[in-house]
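User: These chains co-purify. Model them together.
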Amino acid sequence: MTFDSILDLARQGSRKKVSVAAAQDSYVLEAVSQAYTRGIADAVLVGSRDKIVDMAAQNGISLDGLEILDEPDDAQAALRAVQLVHDGQADMLMKGHMDTRSFLRTVLDKNVGLRTDRMLSHVCVFEIPGYDHLLFLSDVAFVPYPTLEEKQHLIENAVSVAHACGVDLPKVAVLAAIETVNPKMSCTVEAAELARRYDEGLISGCIVDGPLSFDLATVPEAAAHKNATGRKIVGDADVLIFPDIQAGNITYKCMSHMVNHRSGCILTGTLAPTILTSRSDDMETKVNSIALAAVVASK
Amino acid sequence: MTFDSILDLARQGSRKKVSVAAAQDSYVLEAVSQAYTRGIADAVLVGSRDKIVDMAAQNGISLDGLEILDEPDDAQAALRAVQLVHDGQADMLMKGHMDTRSFLRTVLDKNVGLRTDRMLSHVCVFEIPGYDHLLFLSDVAFVPYPTLEEKQHLIENAVSVAHACGVDLPKVAVLAAIETVNPKMSCTVEAAELARRYDEGLISGCIVDGPLSFDLATVPEAAAHKNATGRKIVGDADVLIFPDIQAGNITYKCMSHMVNHRSGCILTGTLAPTILTSRSDDMETKVNSIALAAVVASK
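Assistant: Joint model of the two components:
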């Protein structure tokens, strides 16, 4: 399965609309413009109309077909962008030219925000040539040290993203350094408990196994070498749940910079999928993230 | 710098000898035989002579030039293999056909073992095409949750391996998910404290910076994007120190299986470098590990 299937899903069905908070950012404008041109999503650009128009002209970005909602003040622009999603006038939210902290404060605003009873978490989707499955990683950016209960929420959020992307019964690997339970490593105990909850039917819509080392989760030959009989996952994981943000982020950055790949990321657990791309992401990754959000919004 | 420079160093100078504990393992025999043939190291095979000779014959492995010390009992073979190193009759130790736990117990034996006042730690060396430096990773296999003091020992051990490999002033990146100190993430506080100890001259023979995200440590373009002025490391790290074994092992396995590379690993902090290869390592990695041990033993 490849990222093209996500792009295809985004292009099918009813067109979704992304609301961009403080849209006067040339990278974000270009991504949104490309997503529009490629039939992936409509957009409403909330921010300073003058700056948006100037920036697009300077960078040769077409604004044809994109709505602009003029709001020169960044904080107000963020609030209005979020409210459009909250009120159902847009289907997903995207961060523009503002710092992440202020953006997230608005996302969580009690009146117009996108808070739900689900936990917020970040899901990254990777296509890696040679690996048969799309890989859904969580959490590499948002939840620092998830508790056992929070890990179950990470699984649920990642699984719902996988479902939206057409992976009907994702295999969820709860990762650790080792594949056996060691009481001195709490993440292995928690991984086994999550696998037990799956066995008891308390986690559904997926298959959960853990603790698993990275190679047992993603490398069929390593799983064969390790004689991993009786395991539910033998190098064929769809979802990777990390012990904490340190392991998640370092692995994610390693995959992003050292492994040939295509990827996209969203924040989930919100009323609507939310996109926070980083400047260092390339344009394709930004467009992929919009497509991923659109697919999740369609579900 | 490439792994060839390590192989060259091993071939230069006086030939070092590896003592193999319970050598009746076809993969280990082949690696040792190749290392001998390629001029990297001599070897003494401690174990069941019958099994060693049979296994070599069955697998077409040449034992020409390799000593055999007949000891059919595995535990005794391990003790004698370690003692050869302890007594200076061999320069490095290698695990053969025995489980890691028993092997390590012998390595740490109070009478004949290789214990020193330094902490034992594991160092992996990666050559990654496109990255200008050899990367020295620690700890991905041995030290589960290093304390601040233990992290300083990880640095010292990895730096001494880097020195032996000809990296005179290695840049040590203490990794985390983020590049700023966050009191809620103890690894960022510890990373900053290690950097401070370097600034005060308490850690020498290297340059220490932290906390650093993986991309700031290893991707010059990302460092430029993030405007990392005033940092000592901007995408040009030699040594990567991980927050804990979960982050270390998962990243290491990701690099081992998803990134094009050449690598080798040793256990250090012992009286002599010690090699524990895994069956799933390919032959080149096993030979590289012997070469790495020989280079460290020469220092």
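Chain B has a mean pLDDT of 96.
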